[in-house]
Specification:
mainly alpha, two-stranded antiparallel ribbon, 3 helices, 2 strands, about 5% strand, X8_dom_prot, signal, X8 domain-containing protein, X8
């Protein structure tokens, strides 16, 4: 008993649909709450450039109170750590208004939460 060409093409069409359904059920979709990104200082950026960008971020929308002495994100007291906190604060507070994580090429996005100890880096979906 042989299948007609229309039956074969219908079977092939059903197989393609099943493969597509299986593929899309395995691949996770990016949706609110599933993926977050933080803006941090690029490790390759020199401290003097980070310091300029850190100052700019704090003057233009970042909340830099937590990187002040005796605050939860003051330690470790490094330009890179403070810049990461300020960059992320600026980016999270203003990304809905079009802000980027660039800072003259001193920063980058990461999917890894940079929070440590009592220092929590904010993330706003």
């Amino acid at each position: 008993m042989s299948m007609s060409s229309s039956s074969r093409s219908m079977s092939f069409g059903l197989i393609k649909i099943l493969v597509a359904l299986i593929f899309f059920s395995i691949v996770p979709f990016k949706s609110e709450g599933q993926f977050h990104d933080w803006c941090i200082a690029d490790e390759q950026t020199p401290d003097d450039e980070l310091m300029q960008a850190l100052k700019w971020a704090c003057e233009n929308g970042a909340d830099c109170t937590k990187i002040q002495e005796n605050q939860p994100c003051y330690l470790p007291n490094t330009v890179r750590q403070h810049a990461s906190y300020a960059f992320n604060s600026y980016y999270q507070n203003l990304k809905q208004k079009g802000a980027t994580c660039y800072f003259n090429s001193a920063a980058l996005l990461t999917a890894r939460d940079p929070s440590h100890d009592a220092c929590k880096f904010e993330v706003i979906p």
